[in-house]
Amino acid sequence: MREAVRNFIPKNRIWILTQLPAVVMGMMLTYNGSQWELLTPYSAYFAVSFLVLTLSLNPIKKLKPQWVWVLKLNRHRRQLGVASFSCALIHFVCFLIMRGSFYKAVPYFFHPAIIPGVWVAFPILLVLAISSNNRSVKKLTFPKWKQLHRTVYLAEGVIIVHMILMGEFVFALCFFVPLVGLQLLRFKNTPV
Ligand code: HEM
C-alpha cells in the first residue's frame, strides 16, 4: 500500500503538473468565491494556452521531427488536452458565480458571445476529456475515436469566435494565428 502511494507521484507526475493550475484555481474559488473576477481571465487563458499547445505539437512534430522536446511533449498531449478542459471548467464555474447561480446564469447562455463557449466549445472539451483514455479508444475503435477527437477543430474555431466577441481580438490573433499557420503548413506538407 505504502509502495503504491510512493509510486503514485512519479507515475502520475505529468497529470499532477498539468492539473495543478485548475486545482489551485478551484481551491481559491472554494476558499473565496469572490475571486471569480480574478480567475475568469486566468482560467480562460490557461484553457486556451493548454489547447493551443496541445494542437501545435503534432504540426511541429511533422515539420521538425528532429526537435526532441516536441517528441517528448507530444507523448503528453492527452494530459495537456484534459488540462485545457479542467481550466475551461473553472472558467465556467467563475461565470456561474458571477451570475449568482446556475439558474440565474441560464438566460446569459443565449448571449451571442457566450453561445460558442457554452453550447459548442465546452461540451466538445468535456466529451474529449471524458474519452481521453485507452478504454474509450478500445470501446469506440480507433477510427471512430479519432473522428470524435477531430471535433476539437470545431472547438478551436468557436473559441476564436468567443474571444473575438468578448473583445479579445488581439489575444485571439496572438494565440491562433501561429496555430492556424502551423496547421496549414502541416496540411501543405502532407502528401495526398
Ligand atoms: C463554458 C462556457 C463559457 C462561458 C459561460 C464563458 C464566459 C466568458 C465570459 C463571461 C468572458 C468575459 C470575461 C470578462 O469580461 O472578463 C469570457 C472570456 C473569455 N473566454 Fe470564455 N466562456 C466559456 C467557455 C470558454 C472556453 C471553452 C474557452 C477556451 C477554452 C474560453 C476562453 C475565453 C477567453 C480566452 C476569454 C477572454 C479572457 C477574459 O476576458 O476572461 N471560454 N468567457
From TrEMBL:
Subcellular location: Membrane
One Gene Ontology cellular component: plasma membrane
Protein keywords: Iron, Membrane, Transmembrane, Transmembrane helix, Transport
Chief localisation class: membrane
Domain Ferric oxidoreductase: 48-155
Pfam families xref list: Ferric_reduct
Protein topology in the membrane: Multi-pass membrane protein
Transmembrane segments: 12-30, 42-60, 80-102, 108-131, 152-185
Superkingdom per UniProt: Bacteria
One MF term in the entry's GO annotations: FMN binding
Keyword Repressor attached: no
Protein name (Swiss-Prot/TrEMBL): Ferric oxidoreductase domain-containing protein
Source organism per UniProt: Candidatus Finniella inopinata
